[in-house]
Structures are given as structure tokens and as C-alpha cells.
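ping. complex inputs:
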Amino acid sequence: MAKFITKRVAQMLLLFIVFLTVVFFLLEAQPGDLTQQYIGNPEIPPEQKAVLAERLGLDKPVGARYLAYMGNFFTGNFGNSLSQWPRPVSEMILEALPRTLVLFLSATLLAYYLGFVTGKVLAWRRGKFTEYALTLGGVGLYTVFYPWFALLMIWGFGFMLTDWVGFRVFPINKFIDVQDWVGSPFSANHVFLRMITVAALSMLAAAITTMIARRRLELAPALRVRNFAFLAGVLYPFVYFAMSPMRPYAADIFHHTLLPVMTLSLVAFAGIMLLTRASMLETLREDFILTARAKGLSEKVIRDRHAARNALLPVVTSLVLALAFVIGGGIITETVFSWPGIGLLLLSAVTLEDIPLAIGCLSIIAVLALFGHLVADIIYMYLDPRIRYQ
Amino acid sequence: MTDLDTKATPSLRMREPEPPGHELLEPEPLWRVRLRLMRKTFGRNWKLFARNKIGLVGLTIIGIFALMALLHPILMDRVWDPAIYDPVKGYDAVITDFVIVEEVTDPFHEISLADAQLETNPFVEVGETVSIPLQPAPPSKAHWLGTDPVGRDILSQLMYSTRAAFALGAIAAIFAVFIATTIGSMAAFYGGWLDAVLMRFADLVLLVPLIPILIVVSALFNLNLPLLGILLGVLSGFGGTAIVLKSQALSVTVKPFVDAARVAGGTNRHIIFRHIIPNVLPLSFLYMMFTVTDAISLEATLSFLGLMNTPMSWGIMIYTTHSQGYLLSGTSYWWLLIPAGMAVTLVAASFFLVGRAMDEVINPRLRRR
Amino acid sequence: MQTIPSPAGAPPRDRTDAALLEVDNLTMEYEVDGGNVSAVSNVSFALHAGESLGLVGESGCGKTSVAMSLLRLQADNARFREGEIRLNGEDLLPLSEAEMRTHRWKDISMVFQGAMNAWNPVQRVGAQILEAINLHIKPRPTAAEARKRMEDLFNLVGVDPKMLDRYPHEFSGGMRQRAIIAMALSCDPQIIIADEPTTALDVIVQDQILAQLLRIQKELGMAIIYISHDIAVIAEVTQKIAVMYAGRIVEIGPTEEVFANPRHPYGYLLLHSAPSITGPRRRLAPLKGEPPNLLNPPTGCRFHPRCPFATEKCVVESPPLQEVSPGHSVECWHWDKVPSMAEEGHA
Ligand SMILES: Nc1ncnc2c1ncn2[C@@H]1O[C@H](COP(=O)(O)OP(=O)(O)O)[C@@H](O)[C@H]1O
Ligand SMILES: [Mg+2]
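pong. complex structure:
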């Protein structure tokens, strides 16, 4: 198992190097070159230009430039932003990263959980009205032009709903309401980081409790412990912030995350639901389902313990594709909702021709994708004994 | 229960070439036999396809949009005045009477004093009526879908963009399928290191999210429709499509007729072109559909982000609406957002649905019992 | 447990003692696009405690359909049109799903055709057997008792009990099928249905498993319905044999008797189209033509298109099931002509 993971990590690293190489050649192939952008930038003081040229190996041949480029990456040195000279790119990325992570993670988790549960039930109700309605809705959501859908969500939940109920249920953009933060003793980033930490820790605690229960207890009480632990894990952060002095600020940030997360999750959810349904239908034709029925097991046990557990495998494999989707969708979400994450950073970098920042963002996104892939692989390995015990 | 699959009508994929002896017996020329067989297969597959109502709906929508794309140049040539209706350079000031009021409640018939003074002369007063061009103008006889924030006809833009979208989809799909079929067949046929390298590479392409890459590419290069089409085609051709087609090709290489061809002394080229590729082709067509879907929505997304260098497209239409600030003005400007958004969604979804319906024809396992 | 005489020499049972399972006039069809597939048509037979019945016929004649019907595991598009399936006198067809579930595996268990895929690939084999034990054995055994039981069963079928903690993919094909047999035995069923249990395996393993099944059945004394398209296999393991053709049982009787004196032309041809392993060498008789399409089966006797004795009557009228000797019944107008087939050069 450790061997498997090591192998995968090595593979990912190799892939990342290939990726960086491709990006390097893209940069080399662009009309004009990087030199001009540095030389031409009036904000960069002349003595800095020499340092930059040195660092990027601008005056050296391609090979040396390539090595310098790779070296810079693996030392975490992404250079300085051109548009916000001289802020280091890494600092800007580090600031935006948690926001993006929260958006991606919560959307992915929500979409997966809800998509799997609905898809599973859907496959079981073959031919019923709910199946048609949900499948059709799913295909609609899956194929809808996402930026447009996000705009419609803003339209619907931001404006129509506000008009209808008379107050603003969902804020429509940005990360915080600036005027509420005037005189705040906390910085937005500080509050946000605390929120992430608390949520992550409490989920971790829930997961560990569940694992222990699995080992120690019988199936039925273990399931009860799991449900309770996860409920508590979800509720605890709310209790924590309700009692903390950060309450109004945390609430503001949480309020702003709702609509973007909901929008992104909804679209990702549709894909997962359709996939689970298809995978379930495929699994239900397997012989072992017939065995399970012959054994006299109840429909629910067959569905959850035999069919769903196997149908989950292709769904986990699809995490890679879903990830690409969530990343693309995440960038659009950030744009539409003015959510200051990596995607928005990337977009503004590109519009301002801030190439170092753009490349930095792109690489981080690639790392995220690779990491997600690795996680998917590990989950898959955990779920499929045929791979686990190779 | 399990017997059912074998009972199902032979699929495209199972179709084996007629044995050569059979062809010799036929007095008619070979191409006629082939044509007849093709027609028969097509007829049978069409019947299977037509069973899927959703696929038919998709096909119909594609047909309607294709008609619109074809009609546009004719309309521009014969009916519409290019000065007014050109999707990019046209301009029509729909002169409208506005009443000057203190507080505007109806933006199509009322105007605030400040705006009126700005648009006409500083001496107008509240209560007077002024005639000024209205843009965006709501749908009218002259402009069925209204005009955009700079006075251009929306319907003309919509039709023009359809052509662009179809062209983009076609370029991407052709490139994708050409590349994927080639490398998929080669990887399956030769195996070994070639297979390993190509498939690793496909993994990489599949893994790296497209949109961020394209965003960066747009900063480095002049990203126009043909370039985007080629780029998407190449990426899809080396990525996901290649993987799928390879596994399909692999299932063909183990079929007895490939061995037979080999024993009969067929060259590798002969086997690849005569046996493997024809059997992979149906699936290739299927993936063409999915590539078109992806290409259309990606183009619209990039345009929406303002990164495409193209005169007009559905994405640009939404971008214009967005960048001119008409997005969040509620339902009153629906024609700025709904037609273009619907067009992208409908066309992309239709290609997707047609692809799914074709999947059911090609892949008997998916068929409803 | 009762002592069972060896299958080959078993005397015909007393008809009056209540049968364990009685299938009466069972008729089942599959609804498909073009109409109804008449897969099971007026099938009747009885199975007594400890008895072994063979169901034989060409592939596609409805054997699996009968087997699935007994457990009410028929496909979604299957419709019962007529008949009863009585287990200990209780008709199973009108039962609710929940009631039916209590009979599955507890009273009737099954060894499936596709041994390879009959196990859930992501669950340990032991856990899958335990699932059945915990569901059906009352009072529910403790973990240790259940474990003991599973180990005994594995020993019985000749698989290392350590394998209980392994996953199905770690088993060989033969081992998987043995483990399935162990699972089928796990709740002391009264009847085991074995649907082509050895078809997918290689010949040597087939023989071993067959012998084992025979031994276990003798040892534990449950009734068994053994389904196969291979009449040689049936001959080895059953006391009673039912020959199916196109959804109907055309001949049924004690195995010895049917083998010695087949009275249905199909039964005769089926017997003679397989090389005999027990009897003297004989020439193989050809069984011409294809089994009929059950979407619209032939009128009258369903075998008439392939029958050497077919007359006008056979085309029009379906023959009744006639008892030709004690316990041996045939559905044929011309059963008395069948013995002449040997002379006429069919064999
Ligand atoms: N679900 C189904 N729908 C329609 N026809 C079926 C279905 N299952 C089986 N059949 C048909 O019913 C007939 C009997 O099948 P089966 O019971 O599997 O035969 P056997 O087990 O003897 O090979 C076959 O013609 C088969 O094609
Ligand atoms: Mg069968």
C-alpha cells in the first residue's frame, strides 16, 4: 500500500515536471518574449532588472533558461508580480489559495455526497416519474452553459428572491461586506483561516471517531456513531463561532460563501448524479446482485451494501474529470461572483499581462489537480480490494 | 437473464467485414455491395437511434440552428441592410419618445432629467417629451429580438454566431477524431512502449484542467476561433478521446478476423486501415459529438471572460451584456441574456444528447431492456 | 437427517407422501417489444425431501427461467400467467416480497450459472456468507458460532477456512464455486437449486465439484434440483429427470427409466446426441434444426417442426402429459413409436 502511494506520487511528480516543461515551451513560443515584458515595465527599477535577468537566465541559452525556470519553481520562487510590483507572486497566491480551496472543497464534497445519494436512489426507482424528472433536470444542469447559469442564479437568488421576500437572502458578490468590517479587530484573512481550521479539525475528529467505532463496534451501532459524529462535526464550527468574538465577521464570510458554493455544487452535482445512476444501473445487472437477492436480503441492504458500494468505484475514478470541471467552473464562479480566489487572480493576471503571476496561478491549479487525482487514487485503492492487495 | 445481451441485435461494433469469398460471388461491383451494406446498417442503426426520443429532439434542435446558420448569409445578402443588420458593425438607432421625469420607473418610456440633458440639450425640463435613440431596444418588427447595448441586431448576431459555433465545433471534432483514431489504433495495435508513452501523455492531458490553460494561452497568443478549434481538437484528441478509442481498438485487435487477416499475410497498414479503424470509427463519430459540445461551451466561456479574439459569438454577446452592466438589471432586459445563453445551452446540450443516443446504438449494454 | 439410498438405485417414491415442492401448471412469459416470450409453459413437477431432480434441455429452453421462478427472482419483464409453486403446501406466488424473502436461502438456496461473478468483489467472502447466516438462522448465532459454522462448511466443500477472510478475486474459479456451494448450504436449506454449476469450469474441476455435490447431498440429505444442458452430467447425479423443450417439460421420470426407455422423440434424440459415459458406445443421432423462437412458439406440439414422427395432429393439437410407465410421463402423441427409432437408423 505504501509502495502504491509512493509510486503514484512519483508518477504525479513526473507529470508535473512534464507539465512545467510544456508551459515553459509555451512561454518560449509566444510572439515576443519575456525579456520585453521585464525590460519594458517602467515600474521595475533598473538595478532590479539585472537581478531578474540573472534569476531567469534571460541572457543565457534555452537550456540554461529551462533549468533556471525549473529551479525557481521547485524552490517556490514564482518571481514578482508585474502588475503589483514588487509583490512576490507566492504571497499573492498564498492569500488567494484558501478561498479557492474552500470553494472547490465544499462544492466537490457537497456535489459528491448529494450526487451519489440521489443517483443511487434514482437508479433504484427506474421508470418512476421522479426518475424522469430528475434525470432530465440533471442533463439540463449538466449541459447548461455554466457562466450563464451562474448569472441566472444571481438573477434569481440575488434579485428576484430579494424582491420577493423583501430582504437580501444571499449577498451576490465579493467575499465580505466591506462596511461591516470597518473597525474590525480581525482581518478577513485571519477570520477566514480560523474558520477553515475549525471546520477541518472538527471533520477530522468526526472521521477518526467513525474509524474507531468501525473497529470496535458492531455494524449497526457503528453506523449510529458515524451519523452522530458527522452531525456533530458539521454543527461544531457553528457553535464555536457563535460563541467567539469573531461571530459577526465569520457570519459575514459564511453568508458570502453560500451562493457561489451552491451554484458550483449544483452543476457538479448533476454530473455526479447522472454518473452514479448509470453506474448503479450497470452494477444492478451484475450476477452478485442476483446472489444478494437470492439470499433474501432486503432491497435497501442490496442497494446500499452491494450495489452502491460497487457503483461507487467508477464514480471515484471520475473524480479526476469532476476535478477538471470544478476547477474550470471554479474560475467562472470566482469571476461571476467576484470571489477573490486563484481563478480571479489568474484572470486579472492575464488581462493585465502579468505573466509571472499567471504562470504561478496556473501551476498551483495544476498542483491542485494532480493532488486531487492522487487523493482519488488513494480512495479508490481503499475501496477496491482488487487493487489494494496487488 | 444473461442470455439477453447475445440476443440483442448485432451492434455496429460487432459487425464483421464480409468474408472475401462472399464478395467474389457477387456479380455487382464491390463499391455497390459496400454501399448496400452501409445503407442496410445505417437503416438498422437509424431505427435504434430513433427509438431514443431525446436524441431525436437533439437532432431537431441542431437542424434548426443549422438552418439559421445557412440562412444568415442569404438574409444579409438579400433582405437585411448590412449597415443596420451587420452583426458586428451594424447600427440601428431606434428613435423613441421619452418623457422626462424625476424618478424613472419605466426605463423604456421615461428618462431622468440629468440623462435627458446629457443626451439632448441642457434646456429640457421635467414633463417634456424628447426623442432619443434607445439602445438596447426591446424586440420590435424591425428587430425581432431587439438590439444590444450598442444598437446591433440580436437576431443577426445570434444567427451569425451559430455559423461560427458550428465551424469551431467541426474543426475541433475533426482534429480530435483524426488524432485520437490514429493514436488510439496505433497504441492498441503496436502496444509496448508506444502505447505506454501515448497513454501516459493522454493521462497528463486529461488531468490538466483546460480552462486555466486556455486562459494563459490567450495571454500569450492571439486566440481566435480557428486556433481555439485546433487547440481543443488536439488536446481532446491526445487526451480523453484517445483513451476511449484505444480501448475500443484494443477490443478489435483481439477479434478473430484480425488474426485471420494477419495469417492471410495482411500488412500492418492493411490491418490498421481495413480492420481496426473501420471498427473504431462509429465510436469516433460519437466522440465527435462530445467534442463539439465541449468546443462550443469552451468558446463561449472564453468569450464570456473576454479572452477570445473573435468579432462575434454567443459568448461575446453575453460578455457585451455583462461588461455594459445590463446583467443585473432584472428581467427588463431579457433579450440581452436569454437568447445567447439559450443558444449555447441548447446547441451544446443537443450535441451531447445526440452523442448519448448514438452511444445506445453502438453500445448494446446501454439499451433499455 | 435421513438416510438416502444411492441415487442410481432409488426406487420410485411413494406418490402419496406430501412433496416438499410442487410446481403445478406453471406458466411464465417475458414481455418484450414484439410480444410475449413463452419461456415456461404449463410446467409441473414434484420434488420430495432428499430427492434429486435433473432439469435438462438445450440452451434457451427455459431451465433458468424455471429456477428463477422458484425463488421468485424472475426478470422484471417476467409475468406469471398461471400455476402454483407450493413449498410445503404453501403457494409462493401470492406472497408479498417481504414474506418471500424469508424463504429465500433459508428454504431454497441456489448455486448460480456464473460462478465467477456471483461474489461481490469488494466484500470478503466470509462477510458475504455471514450476511446470509445472520439473516436467516434464528436465534441469531454469536460471532464465534457463525465463524465455526462457516469454517465447517468450508472444510466440507474442501476450501481452506482461512480463505474466509479473503476477497473473491483471490479465489480460483473452482474455489469460488465451492465457496458458493458452502454459502448455499449455510442456512440448512431444504432445497438447493444448482443451475449449470460447473459449466464455466474446466473439466477436471467440474468432475471434482460434481462428485462433491453428490457426496454432500447424500450426507446432508437436502433435495436438489440440478440444471444442465449436459445430459451426461445429469445422469450422474440425479434420481429423477425432467426433459425440457421450448418452455415445456416433455418427458419426466426416474433417471434410470428415462435413460433406458426414452419415450419422447426429443428425449431420445437428446440422449443419443451426447456420447454416453456409462453405457455402451453408440452412434450419435443428429438433432436437426434450431430450437424454436419462443416469441411465437410452434402450434400444437412445440417439437413438431423437428420431429421425425410429426403428423397433422401434432401441428394442430398439443399432446397431453401421459403416464407411460409408473412415474414416467411423456408429452407426445407418438410416444409408442419412439422405441422404433433405434431400428430406423436414428441410432
Ligand atoms: N428477461 C428476459 N426477457 C425476455 N426474454 C428472456 C428473458 N430471459 C430469458 N429470456 C428468453 O427466454 C428463453 C428461456 O431462457 P432461459 O430460461 O435462460 O433458458 P436456459 O436457462 O434453458 O438456457 C430464452 O429464449 C431466452 O432468450
Ligand atoms: Mg440457463
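The pocket of adenosine-5'-diphosphate (ligand 1) is lined by residues B 1, 3-4, 7; C 30, 32, 37, 39, 57, 59-65, 75, 77, 294 (CB under 6 Å).
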